[in-house]
From TrEMBL:
InterPro entries: AB_hydrolase_1 (IPR000073), AB_hydrolase_fold (IPR029058), Meta-cleavage_hydrolase (IPR052370). The lineage of its organism: Eukaryota, Viridiplantae, Streptophyta, Embryophyta, Tracheophyta. It comes from the Eukaryota. It holds the Pfam family Abhydrolase_1. Residues 52-154 form the AB hydrolase-1 domain. This is AB hydrolase-1 domain-containing protein.
């Protein structure tokens, strides 16, 4: 009998296509040891570039190529892109027992220091937005502009409880790290504005689970439990010094739009917000042209 690793995988085929969008945009995959415990995998230009640096940080649900393929083709002509896999996603790994989003932020900062990137802007979606916020908070001397996408850093305990009730799940891990086809289907339908078919075959759902959720599953669950977001009754948000753009899908059931408006008031004085209509939790994938135009306007036009 053939092993699962040798079985035909539609998900693996599609991932190869996504990687091709990165390479065709002039990016190449690399790995670097940032210390004795931690190795980070990332994409960056094949050739040196004098374009302004921009870091793209993904959320849960897949490593970098799964979440930024529709951005790199547009943004790579205007920026020097650095697209890392966060720890325990893709080939990024650490022996450290730390699991907080702050540790992720420190690790990303070390990566950019080793690459001699003095100043850069950072764009993070969902969990990646948590990391982007802490990068900006910790290193205002290095982080220029910040874009936070559907990322409720201000989530409170009651918000997490309401989310679980809405999704009809008993634990938050079932949403961000589903372990069954039924849980995955719930997640897919929540994060997308467009309605998906009533029926998706289990073999395809299992393929997604095996390729995107089960790799480093133990450590990813530890990341969810280790995050500080949604664990307290009061959101402790320190204002950022940088110019910040918040982008939010109007129909996000995971992090409702009201959390975006609240975050705008908490995060500082130099904050603008763009609400994307007919979009849910992943506007960069659902309406990429509009999303890319919003990013370009903030990063390029506002500096002219």
């Amino acid at each position: 009998m053939a092993t699962s690793s040798s079985c035909f995988s539609l998900v693996s085929m599609f991932e190869s296509y996504l990687k091709n969008t990165f390479t065709s945009s002039g990016l190449t995959p690399k790995s670097i040891d940032i210390d004795s415990d931690t190795t980070l995998h990332y994409w960056s230009p094949k050739q040196p570039s004098k374009l302004p640096p921009l870091v793209l940080l993904h959320g849960f649900g897949g490593h970098s190529v799964w979440q930024w393929s529709k951005q790199v083709q547009c943004l790579s002509t205007h920026f020097t892109l650095y697209v890392p896999d966060l720890l325990f996603f893709g080939k990024s790994i650490t022996k450290s027992s730390e699991r907080s989003e702050t540790f992720q932020a420190v690790s990303m900062g070390k990566l950019l220091e080793l690459l001699d990137v003095a100043r850069y802007s950072v764009l993070g979606t969902s969990y990646g937005g948590f990391v982007a916020y802490h990068m900006a908070r910790l290193r205002p001397d290095r982080v220029d502009k910040v874009i936070i996408v559907n990322s409720a850093i201000n989530l409170r305990r009651k918000d997490s409880e309401e989310l679980m009730k809405k999704a009809k799940i008993e634990k938050i891990e079932s949403l961000f790290m589903p372990e069954s086809p039924a849980e995955l289907l719930t997640c897919i339908r929540l994060i997308n504005h467009k309605k998906f078919p009533i029926y998706i075959p289990d073999f395809l759902l299992n393929d997604v689970l095996n390729k995107l959720c089960n790799e480093n599953r133990k450590e990813k669950l530890e990341l969810l439990r280790g995050t500080t977001v949604g664990k307290e009754d009061i959101a402790s948000i320190l204002p950022l010094q940088q110019e910040v753009l918040i982008v939010w899908g109007e129909d996000d059931p995971i992090f409702p739009l009201e959390k975006g408006y609240e975050l705008k008031e908490l995060i500082g004085n130099k904050v603008t917000m763009e609400v994307m209509l007919k979009a849910s939790h992943t506007p960069q994938s659902e309406t990429p042209k509009q999303f890319n135009d919003i990013v370009m306007k903030f990063l390029v036009e506002s500096t002219k």
